[in-house]
Amino acid sequence: MAIIDFPAQNGNPRKRAETMDGPGAGPRDVLVIVHRAESNPGRVGQWLRGQGYRLDIRCPRLGCPLPQTLENHAGAVVFGGPMSANDPDDYIKREIDWMAVPLRENKPFFGICLGAQMLAKHLGAPVRFHPERHVEVGYYPIRPTTAGHALLAWPSHAYHWHCEGFGIPSGAECLVRGDMFENQAMRHGRAFGVQFHPEMTLAMIHRWTVSAAHRFGQPGARPRAEHIAGHDAHGMRLQSWLAQFMAMWLAPPAAVAADQQKGRKASQGFPVEMGASASL
């Protein structure tokens, strides 16, 4: 195990990241890519740690290198950030190019918001603003496609914080659709991308809605009070979905196929949306 210091900014030291390359790495390590030193893996990190996984946290924007192979990792999660997959910065281009590693090695990959947009761009699909410059900031309804319904049950609403959306690359399938931004989740082999933020805790929502309150003036954004009320109404469903998704995502492909076959037989005649009583 090695320790990587995030480079200082304005003379202030940054938090440190434990990396698991080499002999210390193993199948219980998950690569976590963030884009700001203060980023929090939230419920994703909580679930992984609760299942006994170690988080190998890297921030390419702050100089952390990405591993040349995921042979010693169970999978990789790429989180969001205020930057764009279309930005010309070298670290953005390197990170998008790096996504060839999990795809080539058939490793579980999970892109969240910016992470999903980077995956789409790597696979040749566009990342664009809404034609009327609308944003999704808050909780919005989502609807699974036939492919998404066959995979697992989805919540009726998810938390968003973005102004761009991704296209569906050739060879990928759309799993979830939305009203303002059509493509909300996609799958390409063992790589998944979601436009929404399943990692959110109530504390994170409070922080985001204070530190980025300027977003509320953009067209389509929900007012701050609706973020809190939306989390009260939909947060547990989203948390339950995340637990089911993460277990499926990290499971061996043969086990996933068997579970999906059982699920299709058991779910005939039942609604798509997860019930209100769903919880961890």
Describe this structure in words.
- Helix content is about 30%, strand content about 20%.
- It is an alpha/beta fold and about 280 residues long.
- It has a single domain (about 1-265), classed as 3-Layer(aba) Sandwich (Rossmann fold).
- The chain has a nine-stranded mixed sheet, sandwiched between helices. Strands 1-2 form a two-stranded antiparallel sheet. Strands 7-10 form a two-stranded antiparallel sheet.
- The longest helix has 27 residues, at about 225-250.
- It starts with a strand and ends in a 14-residue tail after the last helix.
- The relative contact order is 0.13.
- Residues about 10-25 and about 265-280 have low confidence and may be disordered.
- Note the beta-strand portion: 15-25%
Strand order, largest beta sheet: 4-3-5-6-13-12-11-8-9
Helix proportion range: 25-40%
Low-confidence stretches: 11-23, 267-280
- What integer value in Å does the Rg equal? 18 Å
Query: What is the CATH architecture term?
Result: 3-Layer(aba) Sandwich
CATH homologous superfamily descriptor: Class I glutamine amidotransferase (GATase) domain
